[in-house]
Amino acid sequence: MRNERKIRALLLGAVIFGLGPVAAGAQDCVKVIGTEPGVPNLTMDPAFVNLADDSYQQNAVYNRLVNLDSSFQPIPELAKSWNVSEDGLTWTFELEEGVTFHDGRPMTAKDVVYSFRRLLDPKVGSPAAAVLNFLDADGITAIDDHTVAFKTPTVVADLPTVLAIKYGLVVPEGSTSEELKLKAVGTGPFVQDVYSPTETRRVFQRNNNYWRKGLPKAQCLELSVVTEEVSRIAAIRSGAADLILSAGAAAAGVLANDPTLKLEKSAPGTYLTLSMWTDTPPFNDVRVRQALKKVVDRQLLVDTIILGNGVAGNDNPVPPTSPLAYTSEIKPQDIAGAKKLLAEAGHPNGLTIELNTGEGYPGMVALAQAFQQMAAQAGITVNVINNPADSYWDVIWMKKPFFTSNWSGRPPAEGLPYTFTSDAKYNEAKWNNPEFDRLLKEARSETDVEKRNALYKEAQKLLSDDGGVIIPYFVSDVAVMRADCEGYVPHPQVPILNYENFVCKGKEAAQ
After folding, report:
1. What are residue 384's DSSP bridge partners?
2. Where are the beta strands (DSSP E) in 98-247?
């Protein structure tokens, strides 16, 4: 009976991945599955990375100029070191030598200059331009083949940190948007092989000329996205998958007791949001927004929705456990306060609103349903609309006045402007607050660390009080891998993935 169950599990895993019998001599790649689908809008172009699925694949083939460690501190990647001039206006980056693109071209400073100038080019239209709007394209120059200078009009105290954004992957000089959308030529550990923007299964081969000697450890990487958690669990248990990049809290709890698997957890970083358009009734009244925030029992959500696998939040993207948070105190649930605000806003008998959600990210539907119950205590009727997961990000996200979403953790210098400034590409709440914009601009130019952090904290509080997003908690990402695999550690910033050391027994690269 035990063998029969095992065979059934293997067959289920094969069905999930669309796998048939393995042909003699076929490669046995490490098999990785993600949760957030990008089909049919997948892109290999770093200038337009949007969903997690784009990051799953782009991190396999590209390198960043600068990366971030798990504490969001900048660390070397293609830039092996950097320094800043005495006036704070010019940052100089020294590049690794002996790095080549997958087509054999050497990577030089000109490629770095081209990559960042391209992000700023209005003709390209990258969302990165709004994040990097403090840069002057003409100020990015190649000093020699392995030295790049960024001269900025004003002091940018956190420049190495900000350059580590998800768009900051280095492409060959002269690459066009048309070329990059379908074909990546990077310097990264794997080379694009089997690929279609309309297919969820993709294959990447080992870069045998990778500049980090001895890496990657796997011969090839097969990447897929599975939106249903039960299917992901079946796949990892059957051996049809070697690694789940992110498991929901309930799944992680179940899989933790499976001796054939092991789990790796990140620091809390990913956060879910309930985002409301601040230019649309009834959310254009700050008293309504504040009332909706007051109904939330944040610690109860941590305990029940993510089963303690994270920390409560305060409606801004910095976890209260961080030393950079404006407060470590968690907003309490205040039903009486919510009713009072609603009455003052002209809704003494409560109000009815529509909340769109979908399992585009694990836990979003459960959050919406829990919020529905909490809001009812204040006389607020929340009609939850559960949409299909596979089309959620294309059809619902940022297209409805009130919806669920999720974002990766980021340092304040990037996370605060990325989705909350007036001109942010992904300003989910359509929040426009000139004082918030001013605080961030001032913080960016402040060289005194304590003063800079104080400005970021002031901006956080303003966002928490006046903004249009509810951020009830932060989640630790949990990766699940087969027990005979090793070398993958999830990062608190979801767009940062590193497959260099990930390998499973019997799937090692030939050295």
Report:
1. 355
2. 140-144, 147-151, 190-194, 202-206, 220-225, 243-244
